[in-house]
Amino acid sequence: MSASEESRAEWLDHKFWDRLELIETRHQRIQSEHDAARRGLERLSLEEFSQLREAWRRYCDVIAELDRTTAELEALRTQAI
Description:
Layout: H1 3-11, H2 14-42, H3 46-80
């Protein structure tokens, strides 16, 4: 370990290192899940891909409408106060 790494390690407490280890472990797990999901998408047939794209479009439309109505409800609520 270099002198700068040693001095850096001295002022960082164990909570930092525990948190760093936790985040690195989670990152590795999520990276693995991402790779598996990507491989799954690559195995889709054209028909399955088309169905997935349509389902995603519908989902995005619904989320957009939900966002709009939530904003309207929030505006109405704040005006009523």
